[in-house]
Design brief:
With 691 residues, the chain is α+β, with helices and mostly antiparallel strands. The chain has five domains: 2-66, no CATH class; 82-137, Nuclear Transport Factor 2, Chain: A, CATH 3.10.450; 172-342, Elastase, domain 1, CATH 3.10.170; 364-485, Orthogonal Bundle (Neutral Protease, domain 2); 488-686. Helix content is 20%, strand content 33%. The protein is built from twelve helices and 36 strands. Strands 23, 24, 26, 27, 28, 31, 32, 33, 34, 35 and 36 form an eleven-stranded mixed β-sheet that branches. Strands 13, 14, 15, 16, 17 and 20 form a six-stranded mixed β-sheet that branches.
């Protein structure tokens, strides 16, 4: 098969498209009846709308080559920019203009032509003069119209009118199906260790075409009661934006892997949560639901019964905003779907620092990159971020010193250099870079580290954009430390919170013996004569029902040693009640326990803020590293971590157990800590982040 392809001597493999015949592609890209290879020539970086077609039979043999000579190309003049082409086409009628440039045969001469789809029409413009060559209406089809935001309610003053040519009977076609999660009073009974629970939930319903034929609904970007809002605008808006995103990926040559059995995508909007305030509110079918402040991507795998679970994107109707209204969020979640469809980064295995979020961080980073590339904007989620301005920004300067132990943010040091490089490229070269990032996913597999991903993308960029361009990217990665990026951060004494938050996995009901370390280690210096160290942080507790037994925060262990890092190994626990155990070269130095009186969270009184503190003594000067660890089934989040280092060690301190001669000593845990509520003003919105 490879010999046949080599014999064709295609000049630009990036413009080569395989079309399997008779069914899904198998090994080598062949369908049951073979395949067609379409090759589009490229002139001056612009594709030609004439494809050479090669027919292969089921054995991969060339059975025919269908080609015709290209006319001469008229290279005189420079094309008008895409924004001018879109502006000219918009004069032909309402709609969101989408423009692409190509060489087209015009009277026996290849000319550069802007093809602009705007509403239910296609406008072709001479790319040099800007003159209109033709306007084609999508006649013969009953094309419904809808309103949608191209970006979000913050950037777009009003939604645009768009065409939905595939939504003739409903928001459903062979690629996408949209559902609105309506409150129909459904009660779902769930059996848990804590007993049998009845939960009032919303019901996903296929969105049918309105009686008047169009989905021209008005948006409600800031509803007064998010729990009761199930407006009709969200579904056609998300449906249209998902198709726009799929078209963008199609343009890069995306095709799901053979293991991704059915790529048909379900999108659900207006997702809301059960109100767990009381037994009555959680189980009453007439009670209001509460807003769901998030969005996520799921499905796309075989379950335990070998049944295919369709991929799904879910968008919450939040307490203040609708996550489906922000196209940045829509395309971020679509990015997760694309990564999964190609078997890309998704699962972080254990490492020498303990549990890892590295592959998950790449997954989040790639989803951010694709969303920003689609919109041409490094800021993500200006609408859902509310007062924060954006949920993340790819134009930032994050390094490995800024890790949080949380996947959404820990991917920034890796993808920000990709965006920085993209900004320096021409439009055709940006598409080449985007395709290189896309093509890296199946090469990376599910569990790569930053260095693995950098090596693959470097090779692809060097091949397609040249070694000099790859060197620029590598240099920026090196400056941010991604090739040796330990999850160890500096905890400078007296500098306030050294981390706004960090995460710890749970021990998951006994599958882990003892404690499981968190995702982040922190290092500090102890002066001559030793010091007393005090770590303080906050945890949140939901004050409503707790059917899963996960809401009450628990004390957290502190493991430490002298040196620059703690090293962990995951071993077989050797017991009937636990599968694995985590063993480190450090030792326990204290238990951060609850101190003071809990206070209500200022931004959401449904949560209480608990203060935690631990103190321990270190006799010897030097560098020390510490790590929080969790011995409880529930995961934990520690907020506003502050480390105080007070020189001098009380003479009555008792020598602690500490491998490696660290000189650490345990001390009283009851140090008083005033609640840090002033630092938690933004925490109410910290839960609003696209997954």
């Amino acid at each position: 098969m490879i010999l046949w392809i080599a014999a064709l001597a295609f000049a630009d493999p990036a413009r080569e498209t395989w079309v399997p015949l008779g069914g899904a592609a198998g090994d080598g890209g062949l369908g049951p009846r073979g395949a067609v290879i379409r090759h589009r020539p490229v002139i001056d970086g612009i594709p030609v709308d004439v494809a050479r077609a090669v027919w292969l039979d089921a054995a991969g043999r060339v059975r025919g080559v269908y080609d015709r000579p290209l006319p001469a190309a008229d290279r005189i003049g420079s094309p008008i920019p895409p924004e001018e082409a879109r502006d000219r086409a918009s004069r032909m009628g309402p709609g969101v203009p989408r423009a692409r440039i190509s060489w087209q045969d015009e009277g026996g001469v290849l000319r550069r032509v802007w093809t602009v789809e705007v509403g239910p029409r296609v406008v072709r413009l001479d790319a040099v003069s800007g003159g209109v060559l033709s306007v084609d209406e999508l006649t013969g089809a009953d094309v419904p119209l809808a309103r949608a935001y191209v970006h979000n309610p913050v950037i777009d003053p009003d939604p645009a009118e768009v065409a939905l040519p595939l939504a003739v009977d409903a928001l459903s076609d062979d690629r996408v199906e949209a559902r609105n999660c309506l409150d129909l009073g459904e009660i779902r009974t769930v059996e848990l260790d804590s007993g049998s629970w009845d939960f009032h939930v919303c019901t996903p319903v296929l969105v049918e075409r309105p009686a008047d034929g169009d989905y021209l609904f008005d948006p409600v970007p800031y509803p007064g009661d998010g729990g009761r809002d199930e407006d009709a605008f969200a579904a056609p808006h998300v449906y249209w934006n998902v198709h726009e995103g799929l078209a963008w990926f199609d343009g890069l040559g995306w095709a799901p892997s053979a293991e991704f059995l059915d790529p048909r995508l379900v999108v659900t909007v207006n997702q809301r949560d059960t109100d767990l305030s009381t037994i009555e509110s959680s189980s009453d079918p007439d009670a209001a639901l509460i807003g769901f402040d998030n969005a996520y991507s799921t499905g796309g795998y075989l379950d335990g019964d070998e049944e295919w679970v369709l991929p799904e994107l879910v968008f919450g109707q939040g307490t203040e905003v609708d996550f489906g209204y922000d196209a940045d969020v829509v395309h971020h979640e679509l990015g997760h779907y694309i990564v999964r469809s190609l078997g890309g980064p998704s699962r972080s295995g254990p490492g020498p620092y303990g549990p890892s979020v590295r592959a998950n961080s790449l997954n989040e980073g790639f989803a951010d990159y694709f969303s920003s590339a689609i919109h041409g904007d490094p800021a993500l989620g200006e609408y859902v971020a509310l007062e924060r301005g954006a949920i993340r920004d790819l134009a930032g300067s994050d390094t490995c010193d800024d890790l949080l132990g949380e996947s959404h943010y820990d991917g920034l040091p890796f993808v920000q250099p990709l965006w920085q490089l993209r900004e320096t490229l021409t439009e055709p070269d940006r598409a080449i870079l985007d395709a290189a990032v896309l093509d890296s996913l199946p090469l990376l597999g599910t569990g790569p580290d930053f260095a693995d991903a950098a090596a693959v993308i470097e090779d692809l960029v060097a091949e397609r954009l040249g070694p000099a361009t790859a060197d620029l990217l590598v240099g920026e990665w090196e400056s941010r430390g991604i090739y040796d990026c330990p999850p160890v951060v500096e905890a400078a004494a007296g500098a306030g919170a050294f981390r706004r938050f960090t995460l710890l996995p749970g021990s998951y009901d006994g599958s882990v013996a003892g404690e499981i370390p968190g995702y982040l280690q922190f290092r500090t210096d102890v002066p001559e004569g030793g010091a007393r160290l005090t770590l303080t942080f906050l945890q949140l507790e939901y004050l409503g029902l707790d059917p899963y037994g996960i809401e009450e925060p628990m004390p957290l262990e502190i493991i430490g040693r002298s040196g620059l890092q703690l090293t962990w190994e995951r071993v077989d626990a050797g017991t009937e009640t636990a599968a694995v155990d985590w063993v480190s070269d450090g030792a326990p130095v204290g238990l951060a326990d609850r101190v003071g009186t809990p206070e209500p969270l200022a931004s959401d009184p449904a949560y209480a803020v608990h203060s935690y503190a631990a103190s321990w003594d270190v006799r010897e000067a030097g560098s020390y590293v510490f790590q929080l660890a969790n011995s409880h089934p529930r995961p934990a989040t520690a907020y506003e971590l502050v480390l105080a280092v007070v020189p001098g060690v009380p003479p009555a301190a008792v020598q602690g157990i500490y491998r490696g001669g660290s000189g650490c000593q345990t001390a009283d845990r009851g140090a008083a800590l005033a609640p840090l509520l002033a630092l938690l003003i933004a925490l109410g919105s910290s839960r609003r982040a696209a997954s």
